[in-house]
Inositol-1-monophosphatase (Amycolatopsis orientalis), 272 residues
Amino acid sequence: MADVGVDETLLKSVAERVADEAAELVHEAWTGMNAGREVRVDTKSADTDVVTAVDHESERLVRARLAELRPDDAVLGEEGGGSAGDGVTWVVDPIDGTVNFLYGLPWFAVSVAAQVGGVSVAGAVAEPVSGRRWSAARGQGAFLDGRPLRVNAPDRLDLTLVGTGFAYKVERRTKQARFVAELATRVRDVRRNGAASLDLCAVAAGWLDAYVEHGLGHWDWAAGALIAAEAGALVSLPGEDAGLGPDATFAVAPSIAAPLRQALIESGAGAI
């Protein structure tokens, strides 16, 4: 359990400020790239798992600003690594949705979350292109540009819109494709948008009724899962629901949680 003495309001403010500044940097780079400026691209776990120079620049900015604003805190970033500290640890995804970024698809974000004892207590997800900013603090609700968020309340499985995503390695993608093919026969439809943090925020806003994905990194869900939960979603993180698989992330409107979870299991979620 996270330390109840942490000032969640202050941490949320820091997350918003830093995420917004990094989003400005990313937006400028994205605009330049679309105008023909070259961006260096490398690969990580697979040829389809890419990282750009802009990812690194964004994370360096976040780390520098956190060092100024919260010098005693630890930082764990997707590109720069790090480890959890004894107090507050900032979990950072400098560009969530890098492939979308590279293709010019404007569905990507900067995600910054504050955790204590591995539990998210504040976070912000900033969209460079739209300028939207999602944020939440533990026990204080979730917001989109200051507007309170609340999940949907679907009452039928066949009218439930579900978001998901796919792994980079072909072997796992094959299993996920079979899973989605089966799930699609049970729900209204399935969406694959390419940025986990924003899919979790979409659940918070009622743009999706649920979201499930296997194999996410810590930085993928740290802010978005808190935002979804503070908007009323039921959330299970990797390792919390063996029936869905050991590394499944699941966020769902409470009204449909039980039948959808069963449908996910029957569709093969636990075998991915």
In short: The mean pLDDT is 94. The domain at 8-148 is CATH 3.30.540.10 (Fructose-1,6-Bisphosphatase; Chain A, domain 1). The first strand starts at residue 41 and ends at 43. The two ends are 29 Å apart (CA to CA).
